[in-house]
Amino acid sequence: MIARLNAEVLDQLVDFLAQLKPNDFSDFSPVLKTSSIGQHVRHILELYDCLVSQYESGLVCYDHRKRDKRLETDVNLALVKIKEIQSNIRLPDKELLLKMAAGSDFETIRTSYNRELCYNLEHCIHHQALINIACNQLDYISLPASFGVARSTIDYANSQSKFETSN
Length: 167
Prior knowledge:
This is DinB family protein. By secondary structure, this protein is mainly α.
């Protein structure tokens, strides 16, 4: 189920990128000021790529991602990468070690594949929220209300609207 939720959020990203003009993807956003939409997309994709590509080794380190500048400037390459991730994301849960920078050292903690999928899902949604803000000035973009919104927030809002209509 968690892999399906990740694939669905990545589908939202595909739908968004299909609408986006190449310059609006790669140029610094006047709203975000210090980054481009493409940089946020690259960051999302590289974390997913780390998880999937390092799965077999059992040791995941997001700090050692590629930082491939082409993913932030070439929207078509980003779309290919999303499809690749979606094709490879459905892996069995297993215990993993997460290696992370801790100052000048590294720390390793136990985690699992499904836990890291949860992390990547929330991370993707967080960056989609930032992308959504950047799109406020792009009047040709049409995003679903759920773009950049956590599933729990959507469920809560739905439960509140049902409650309000029943009173």
